[in-house]
Amino acid sequence: MASKLQVLAVLLAIATVMVPVAMAADIVVGDDNGWRQDFNYTEWASNNMFMLGDNLVFKYDRAIHSVVAVGGDDFRTCNVSNGAIKRFDSGNDVIQLNTTGKRWYVCGVVEHCINGQKLAIEVLPAMSPPPNSSTSNQVMSHAYQTLMAVLIAAMMI
Prior knowledge:
By secondary structure, the protein is an alpha/beta fold. It folds into 2 domains: 1-24 and 129-157; 25-125, Immunoglobulin-like, CATH 2.60.40.420. The protein contains 5 helices and 8 strands; from the N terminus they run H-E-H-E-E-E-H-E-E-E-H-E-H. The protein has helices at 4-23, 41-46, 72-77, 110-114, 133-156, and strands at 26-28, 50-51, 55-59, 67-70, 84-88, 92-96, 101-106, 118-124. It has a 5-stranded mixed β-sheet. The radius of gyration is 20 Å and the shape is elongated. It starts with a helix and ends with a helix.
């Protein structure tokens, strides 16, 4: 039979692997404002951290908006016709951030994009340098919850 120390070691190893998964988050673009015109997505993005495994959630009125993933040049020029990598139009689109690097999203209505309805982000690796203070609290909360679950499980053995 395995000793308590061996079981604890296995539980800690599992927790270490699971922490990045537990920290993955659904990030609603624009928070309560959603995906709309007359909102500063550049400022919003600068106050958020986008990690590998997170999901971007675009919420909007599909009768007047859409989301188009584009490249950097097409982002700058609001080119949604030839530059579209992928189009979304459900009004509640969930986009998994499954690779690191820069990502660009614009409204499919060119005039809306020209007026600022566009989002540029950088997706960071799951294990990255310390985040800004507002995101830091969320990360620490997830890590704390995972650690506490492991400790409670170990004490029950």
